[in-house]
Amino acid sequence: MNWEKLARELSLKTPTKIVLLVLDGLGDLPHQGQTPLEEARTPNLDELARQSVCGVTDPVLMGVTPGSGPAHLSLFGYDPTRYLLGRGILEALGVGVEVGRDDLVARGNFATLRDGRIVDRRAGRIPTEENRRLCARLNEALKGRTNPRITLYPGKEHRFVVKFSGPGLCDALSDADPQKENKPITYTQPLVPEAEESARLVNQFIDEVTELLRDEAQANTILLRGFARHPTIPTMEELYQLKPAAIAHYPMYKGLARLVGMDILEVGPETADIFRVLEENYEAYDFFYLHFKKTDSAGEDGNREAKIRAIEELDPFLPRILKLKPEVLVVTSDHSTPCALKSHSWHPNPFLLHAATARVDDVQCFTELSCQAGHLGRFPALYAMSLMLAHAGKLKKFGA
Amino acid sequence: MNWEKLARELSLKTPTKIVLLVLDGLGDLPHQGQTPLEEARTPNLDELARQSVCGVTDPVLMGVTPGSGPAHLSLFGYDPTRYLLGRGILEALGVGVEVGRDDLVARGNFATLRDGRIVDRRAGRIPTEENRRLCARLNEALKGRTNPRITLYPGKEHRFVVKFSGPGLCDALSDADPQKENKPITYTQPLVPEAEESARLVNQFIDEVTELLRDEAQANTILLRGFARHPTIPTMEELYQLKPAAIAHYPMYKGLARLVGMDILEVGPETADIFRVLEENYEAYDFFYLHFKKTDSAGEDGNREAKIRAIEELDPFLPRILKLKPEVLVVTSDHSTPCALKSHSWHPNPFLLHAATARVDDVQCFTELSCQAGHLGRFPALYAMSLMLAHAGKLKKFGA
Class of A3-84+233-391 per CATH? Predict the structure, then answer.
């Protein structure tokens, strides 16, 4: 059963609208009997659950903890085991780099070279400020360069992303990283014959940077790894005939949305801004992906109180979505981030779908366990998209 | 996980019997709190649910609305995305044409040709009576013809089915239909080299019919589309070692049953006739597919009262099946047909399986939502067949 093939065949362009609200990392584990979602006061989410059909989703497979990439691809209807996103791509998206179809990106470290040996693979974890200065200095030195154009983007501490832009670049390249200290500079190797020219360009860049930084005390060379090109992935318009837009605060989620062809709407830093931008752009699109990050951040910090506060901060905004009367509203999560684990987990996500065509079930509140008893049962997140399209009248009948 | 491969390997011939009762289009949406199935008085179905294991099924994939073809194939254990039934085949089955392994069928329209242009693609929607006269006239004119033999079968208004019978026919043919009016006759084109001879025969037939009908005022030519041969599909005997029979009132369902190798039992027009024929033929087969159409027809008409009446009409017949003591009785549906949508939908189907080997659950009545809470949960309809075979002792252990 190939959903992507069916999607191409059955999707219909219609004026109906879908809103997908993702509360990142929402699911959790009980602490003294209750999860943060159970403990939080959520009158709007609970009322919505009573008027919706509910279930819980597995992002990839039962027991498999997804990164943000696979978890979101799945929610957008893309098989995450088919569309693999390289670490370099995700790192690039995470620092806000726009990766085009002709670009090659890699993750980088500034490092310390002494007497021909890498003595510190992180250049003493230089401050982020220092990183910014170094990237600006290198970008200035490289600015006349074309074919490929080369740009560095500073991350935190010693980490950066580099983007090579030009035709014919290949990402079948080994890491240019000795992995251990006290080894000489390691150059990238082409993993296939077509990557030979790209390897030469990358290695020439490493030598050039090392020459440019020779007067720096700590950060006087670089390591590169995770070479990746833009993945070959059909857009949501190609698959579903949708005109989609993303409203998200963090670069990673904007980047993921851009990968599948969404327009990225500018949004201010407050939670209220997400809903204001939705209202302002409601006529221009037929699919909206809204991303709320605070639930995940609190989970990653192991801060249960902050997670409860984040959920309660979000809850009052639901009526603003309903007021727009989208044909379909889904509230769910990409993955769980239990406070006790301080990391993503494999536990399934609560899911509710509100639509006039929904077979509303008996679920009385929006929590991990109560949603499980809903009419959608437990299902792969991959089918969130077919359900949204169906309830919005955007899928034709299959066969006669 | 390939069920078909497992089925061939594990199926056993045994004297046990299976009855599959399909209430077409049964599932619905709540109206003022209740679905028709919830509102209907169904003491026998509810008692049976209490003694059964229950669940709900997705015919194809969550969110995907199936036509009757894919929905039934799934219930018979055939992956409906693998075995695709052309529109021509289904139309042919629908008007009761027996399609054999050497036959090529197509859907046809009578149309109006004037001054070399098709001016009406439906010949003014001629009455069905007129259609019958034209088909009889053409069949009379064509009756001496062999290789291929050609037969027309009238449908409603301007629609008919044509069957070409002879060896070596190929269905890789484009539609012989200009799609728009005021265009000349469009001939079929072979889509692969092996279809060239078939295209020549079909186009010669179009010219011949146009010549034969030249004195008709409105219906003086034909359009043909959806060319299809009998699909290559293993029989239920090949896959499951069953000797299956179908009891159905409508040609479409008899046709689908014939496609998978069932014998079609003659049946009178009343609901009671279905059960009488089951009783009379009970010894001769080990698998019975019983099809009840009225629930779907009421849904398609948007007639909620009629749907409730249909369910209540069926309910009293259940004890007659139980009296035969089949090892397995399944009551379910092929797809939902909600009255509010007046069409097939993607909503899952209630499912109950009654057998001495069933792990009976706590489900107290046979409704869409209560079945969801059953021990079978929500599952693909494709596994209805493995469950029926298993509970009837017809599947060996897999592996040692």
Answer: alpha beta
